[in-house]
Write a structure and sequence with these properties.
By secondary structure, the chain is of the alpha+beta class. The chain is built from 11 helices and 11 strands. Strands 2-1-3-9-4 form a 5-stranded antiparallel sheet. Strands 5-6 form a two-stranded antiparallel ribbon. Strand 1 and strand 2 form a beta hairpin.
Length: 343
């Protein structure tokens, strides 16, 4: 097997890239076994995200030509996600699931394999997560999804189907409900400009190719002798890796999203302290509140703090003399600064 290249496996490219030093046994570092570490890290990421009420779930959308229902792009119950997470063969239509299992057993008897698609959803993701261009949600999640062996396609929202629509059909029109912005559709998968909308759920899919290791005879080459040959792979090989891939897809999504959320939090925490100084009635409070809202930062009004702390209006406290009042200001600013450092 060292010199016999398995068709559609990483043997040939690994041999070329690593000059024959690649580990060919069981696929080496091209094997699906490497995803165990992704699932371990993803499990921790999911726990952290759950504390923010961010829930990730998925189901087997298709095996071969057998298709399950799609998620409802606008309204998905958390109970459904929990039910899918507790299933060893997660599908929305259990009758379709039985057909999928029968197909997998059929191709196994034929010493063949079959591929499929996993559809995943993220609930309660807040708006404003990620950045445009290189740090978009799509580029981050897709990058990790393509690190999973056998993933050959990734799409968000309607994905490739959106290319068949006209703009009037593809655009997710918006409306206000209870002072919140919402959309009538979710063709873009809860992402606009690479950034989360926080409205409908985030939806994406990953397509998996059939397992390359099959028992049928296949034409290949002996890389050492530079000769044509044939190969029949023996041993235990999954006729379909899609059911095993479900937790891996969820895990890489959790890792990607947690990283993006922490990136946003780090950006917000790096905002410098801004102090507004001006005459009474010059608009310091109004401007300060607007700045804090835009920067998603905390806002403190020193005058309000003084009035609350000393139980009196500024004009009354000022009657004790300017020097007295300025000393109150200095003490109050110092206390507020200490509180900010504690945060």
């Amino acid at each position: 097997m060292e010199n016999i290249m398995r068709p559609s496996h990483g043997d040939y490219t690994g041999h070329i890239r690593y000059r024959g030093c690649n580990d060919y046994r069981g696929g080496g570092h091209f094997s699906g076994r490497i995803t165990a570490a992704l699932v371990f890290a993803g499990a921790i990421a999911k726990i952290i995200l759950t504390k923010e009420n961010i829930i990730i779930g998925s189901h087997i959308l298709s095996i071969g030509d057998i298709q399950d229902e799609n998620f409802n792009y606008l309204d998905i119950e958390e109970g459904l996600i929990k039910e899918l997470n507790n299933s060893d063969f997660p599908v929305l239509d259990h009758n379709i699931g039985m057909e999928m299992k029968d197909l997998i057993l059929k191709v196994k008897e034929e010493k063949d394999s079959i591929g499929g698609v996993v559809e995943a959803v993220v609930l309660n993701l807040p708006p404003g997560i990620a950045r445009h261009f290189f740090h978009s949600i799509e580029s981050h999640i897709a990058s990790l999804l393509f690190s999973i062996p056998a993933v050959k396609g990734v799409e968000f929202g309607k994905g490739f189907e959106i290319s068949k629509m006209q703009g009037s059909q593809a655009n997710d029109e918006m409306y206000i409900q209870k002072e919140k912005v919402k959309t009538f559709s979710n063709n873009n998968g809860g992402i606009l400009g690479g950034i989360s909308t926080g409205m409908p759920p985030l939806i994406f899919r990953a397509a998996f190719k059939p397992t390359p290791s099959i028992g049928k005879e296949q034409k290949t080459v002996n890389i050492k002798e530079k000769e044509n040959t044939s190969l029949e792979i023996t041993g235990r090989h999954d006729p379909c890796i899609v059911p095993r891939a479900v937790p891996v897809v969820e895990s890489v999504a959790a890792i990607a999203l947690l990283e993006l959320i922490l990136d946003v939090k780090n950006m917000n925490s790096s905002i410098p302290d801004i102090v507004l100084i001006g005459m009474p009635g010059s608009g310091k409070t109004t401007i300060g509140r607007l700045l804090a809202e835009k920067l998603q930062a905390d806002f403190y009004d020193v005058d309000q703090y003084i009035e609350k702390k000393y139980h009196d209006k500024i004009r009354e406290l000022y009657k004790n003399g300017e020097e007295y009042f300025r000393e109150l200001e200095r003490k109050s600013i110092k206390r507020l600064s200490i509180n900010l450092l504690k945060l």
